[in-house]
Design brief:
This protein is of the alpha+beta class. The protein is built from five helices and 13 strands.
C-alpha cells in the first residue's frame, strides 16, 4: 500500500496517505485555505486538536494558512466493507513538516516575549499572516496544559524523543506513525471503501499536531489514565487510489465538556461513546516500539 520506512537512531518513520477537502456532511480534515482562528473543541484538547492548526510554508514563512476543523466519527462507522464520503487535505510535499536539526534551533528563542527579536531574525513583517501564525503558536505553546495531560511543543527529533521517553520510559525505543501522501490526481472529496483496518498495539499513544511557524513545530500531548486505540485503515477511493490512514479513537469521552464540538457533531454526551478521527499526513503519532 505504499508504506515507507525511514530509520533513525531512536525512531522510525512510517508514512501512510491522506487527501483534501471541505463539505458539511462528510468526514472532513483541514482545508488548505486561510481562515480565522476559532474556539477550541471544548474539552481541553481531549480530542487531540488545537483549533488554530494551519498549513505551513517553507522559506522562513507561513503560507496557505487554514483552520483546523476536523469532523469526528465512531469506531462502528469504520468497518471493513463500509463506504463513506471523506475529504482529506492534499499535501504534495512533507518537507515543511520535517524537523530542522536541533543545532539549528537550539539557540533561537521560542517564546512570545522574544517575538520582536524573532520577527527581525526571520524577516517577518509585523501583522503579516506569518507573524499572526507565529504569535498564535507561541501563545498556545505557553498555555498551561489541560488537566490530566502532559503536553509539549517540540522543535526537533531529539526533543520529540526526549518528551516521548519521559512518558513511555527512558529506556524505550519510540517511533512515529504517520499517514502517507497521495497522488495529486486524487479528488478532494470522494467515496472511500474500508478495505482493511488493523489495530496498532502500542500501549501509550502520543498524538502530535503540526503548528504554524517558520520551522517545524509540533504540539504533542498525552492524556494520563485514558485509553486510546490506534488503527491503520486502508481505504480505496472511487477513482481507484489507495489511502492508508492513521485512525485514532479516544475511548473515554467522559471528562470532556458537553459543549465539545466533536460530541455535539456526533449528537453524544460525555462518556456515551468513543470519539475517533483520521490524521492528516502532516500530523503524527508517537508510539513505543
Amino acid at each position: 500500500m505504499g508504506n515507507g520506512f525511514v530509520s533513525c537512531s531512536f525512531l522510525f518513520l512510517l508514512f501512510v496517505a491522506l487527501a483534501p477537502g471541505v463539505t458539511s456532511n462528510v468526514l472532513r480534515l483541514p482545508s488548505m485555505d486561510f481562515a480565522e482562528q476559532t474556539e477550541d473543541d471544548g474539552h481541553g484538547h481531549g480530542d487531540g486538536h488545537h483549533s488554530s492548526h494551519m498549513h505551513m510554508g517553507m522559506g522562513m514563512g507561513v503560507s496557505n494558512l487554514a483552520n483546523y476543523d476536523p469532523t469526528f466519527t465512531v469506531m462502528k462507522d469504520v468497518q471493513v466493507g463500509k463506504t463513506m464520503p471523506i475529504s482529506f487535505p492534499y499535501i504534495d510535499d512533507l518537507r515543511p513538516y520535517q524537523f530542522l536539526p536541533r543545532e539549528k534551533t537550539r539557540h533561537i528563542p521560542f517564546s512570545s516575549e522574544a517575538l520582536p527579536e524573532l520577527r527581525r531574525y526571520f524577516s517577518v513583517a509585523h501583522g503579516s499572516k506569518t507573524d499572526i501564525a507565529m504569535k498564535q503558536t507561541l501563545d498556545f505553546c505557553e498555555k498551561e496544559p489541560p488537566r490530566g495531560e502532559a503536553t509539549a511543543c517540540v522543535t526537533s527529533f531529539e526533543s520529540l524523543a526526549e518528551y516521548a521517553r519521559g512518558i513511555v520510559g527512558s529506556d524505550s525505543e519510540v517511533g512515529i506513525v504517520r499517514s502517507s501522501l497521495i497522488s495529486s490526481t486524487t479528488p478532494t472529496l470522494q467515496n472511500y471503501t474500508v478495505v482493511e483496518s488493523k489495530e496498532i498495539l502500542t500501549g501509550k499513544v502520543i498524538p502530535c499536531h503540526a503548528e504554524p511557524y517558520v520551522y517545524a513545530v509540533y504540539y504533542c500531548h498525552f492524556q494520563v489514565n485514558t485509553d486510546n486505540k490506534l488503527f491503520m485503515v486502508s481505504l480505496r477511493g472511487e477513482n481507484g487510489d489507495w489511502v492508508d490512514a492513521v485512525f485514532l479513537c479516544h475511548m473515554d469521552s467522559s471528562p470532556w465538556s458537553e459543549e465539545s464540538k466533536s460530541l455535539l457533531r456526533l449528537g453524544l454526551k460525555p462518556g456515551e461513546s468513543e470519539v475517533c478521527h483520521f490524521f492528516p499526513a502532516y500530523d503524527l503519532v508517537v508510539v513505543p516500539q
